[in-house]
């Protein structure tokens, strides 16, 4: 029982590790989702969004291993988001997710495929569209978009596209907008995702899992005219300490390079502390940059498991700021709590608050978001589980419009190792 609960907690927190991969072992996994909700309601007028059925989305994943070679991939098909009063049904290979009803930017993957080879001991080389190789701790994401534990990031503050006259619509900017709530900081801890990559791990003590890992990747989009490489290092010299550094090189067109540093202190199995810092847009001028792409962020989290009780919490706080005088900082706080009622019944919740991201040149008040996402999971047996999730979000935009969104969702997950 104890080992089972520890495994559940570790999976739910989704802590980064030296072997981050989509599927952890040779297996097949299928997740079926459906849900419904109100995409938004505007308190400032008499209208509101149409009640939506979020469709039926099915994600099938398979991982195969042959000694020195691994291949894994996934495919999402289904009936994506539909207006409740709409007509006709469309079956699609879609990137829509359960977050689409909220207008979230978290897109899924209509498909992904990864190939990993291990030609000699402790070395891996890979090419893939979703490797998910990462180092160090980071803000809690809850899981991939097709998972029941998935939730919005950092209170739903998000980057967007700049829309000033004379600026290309395709120029991605972190700058606040009059009608958007922005400020999310994108940490560079995930150094190899859609990329060609390699990593080498030096093991100091296999029994205690002490190691040094070095990684390098050429990400999607690198060309001979704009060539850049991602690099990462993760070190765990003792049980207590894990440190990590990653740097995503990018040309000026892609807003400069991004730096990440992370630290984790494992005091006991029931208590640890994580902290992270990042700087985006390295190489862009601090002043005179009207696009405001240069910004930094930091955050920390604490994991506490209450002794022998099947209960744990993980609160966190984050802060991001623009290195441009007209844009103010954004702050968020949130966390997850989970209670494993029995071996088969699990009750948990994620909640977050976020506010800030003002643009003084427009004299606005920034934005505010509160999100709560309770979830319940029943493990029918070792292969099947069902989950029910409710999500509510209230948002105040800089233009002082307020929106409320909510949805119910249901998941059926099948998993079998072979």
How large, in whole angstroms, is the Cα Rg?
22 Å
Helix/strand order = HEEEEEEEEEEEEEEEEEEEEEE
Query: What's the total helix number?
Result: 1
For the secondary structure, the number of strands is 22
Query: What percentage of the residues does DSSP assign to strands (E)?
Result: over 45%
Give the averaged pLDDT, no decimals: 80
Task: State the gist of this model.
The protein has one helix spanning 2-13, and strands at 27-38, 52-66, 69-79, 82-83, 92-93, 111-117, 123-128, 160-161, 172-173, 195-205, 210-219, 230-236, 241-248, 257-268, 271-282, 295-305, 311-322, 330-340, 345-356, 367-379, 384-396, 402-417. By secondary structure, the chain is mostly beta strands.
Itemize the secondary structure elements and their pairings.
Elements lengths: L1 H12 L13 E12 L13 E15 L2 E11 L2 E2 L8 E2 L17 E7 L5 E6 L31 E2 L10 E2 L21 E11 L4 E10 L10 E7 L4 E8 L8 E12 L2 E12 L12 E11 L5 E12 L7 E11 L4 E12 L10 E13 L4 E13 L5 E16 L1
What does this structure look like?
By secondary structure, this protein is an all-beta fold. The relative contact order is 0.16. It has an 18-stranded antiparallel beta barrel. It has a two-stranded antiparallel sheet with strand order 8-9. It starts with a helix and ends with a strand. It has one helix spanning 2-13; strands at 27-38, 52-66, 69-79, 82-83, 92-93, 111-117, 123-128, 160-161, 172-173, 195-205, 210-219, 230-236, 241-248, 257-268, 271-282, 295-305, 311-322, 330-340, 345-356, 367-379, 384-396, 402-417. The protein has 1 helix and 22 strands. Helix content is 3%, strand content 50%. It is globular.
């Amino acid at each position: 029982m104890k080992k089972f609960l520890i495994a559940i907690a570790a999976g739910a927190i989704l802590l980064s590790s030296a072997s981050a991969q989509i599927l952890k072992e040779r297996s097949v996994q299928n997740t079926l989702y459906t849900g419904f909700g109100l995409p938004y309601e505007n308190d400032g007028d008499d209208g509101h969004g149409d009640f939506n059925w979020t469709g039926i989305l099915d994600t099938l994943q398979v991982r195969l291993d042959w000694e020195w070679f691994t291949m894994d991939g996934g495919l999402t098909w289904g009936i994506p988001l539909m207006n409740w009063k709409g007509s006709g049904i469309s079956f699609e290979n879609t990137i829509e997710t359960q977050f689409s009803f909220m207008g979230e930017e978290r897109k899924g993957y209509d498909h992904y495929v990864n190939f990993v080879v291990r030609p000699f001991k402790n070395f891996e080389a890979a090419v893939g569209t979703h490797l998910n190789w990462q180092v160090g701790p980071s803000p809690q994401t809850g899981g991939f978009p097709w998972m029941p534990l998935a939730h919005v990031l950092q209170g739903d503050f998000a980057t967007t596209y700049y829309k000033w006259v004379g600026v290309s619509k395709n120029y991605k900017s972190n700058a606040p907008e009059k009608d958007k709530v922005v400020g999310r900081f994108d940490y560079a801890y995930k150094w190899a995702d859609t990329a060609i990559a390699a990593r080498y791990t030096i093991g100091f003590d296999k029994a205690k899992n002490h190691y040094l890992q070095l990684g390098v990747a050429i990400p999607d989009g690198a060309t001979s005219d704009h060539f850049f490489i991602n690099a990462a290092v993760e070190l765990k010299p003792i049980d207590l300490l894990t440190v990590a550094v990653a740097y995503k090189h990018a040309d000026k067109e892609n807003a400069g390079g991004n730096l990440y540093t992370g630290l984790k202190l494992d005091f006991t199995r029931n208590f640890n502390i994580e902290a992270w810092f990042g700087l985006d847009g390295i190489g862009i001028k601090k002043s005179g940059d009207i696009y405001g792409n240069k910004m930094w962020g930091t955050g920390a989290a604490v994991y506490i498991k209450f002794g022998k009780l099947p209960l744990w919490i993980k609160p966190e706080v984050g802060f991001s700021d623009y290195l441009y005088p007209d844009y103010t900082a954004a702050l968020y706080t949130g966390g997850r709590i989970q209670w494993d009622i029995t071996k088969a019944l699990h009750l948990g919740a994620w909640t977050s608050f976020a506010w800030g991201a003002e643009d003084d040149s427009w004299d606005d008040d920034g934005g505010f978001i509160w999100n709560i996402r309770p979830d319940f999971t029943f493990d029918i047996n070792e292969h099947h589980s069902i989950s029910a999730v409710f999500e509510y979000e209230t948002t105040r935009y800089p233009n002082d419009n307020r929106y409320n969104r909510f949805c119910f969702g249901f998941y059926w997950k099948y998993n079998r190792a072979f």
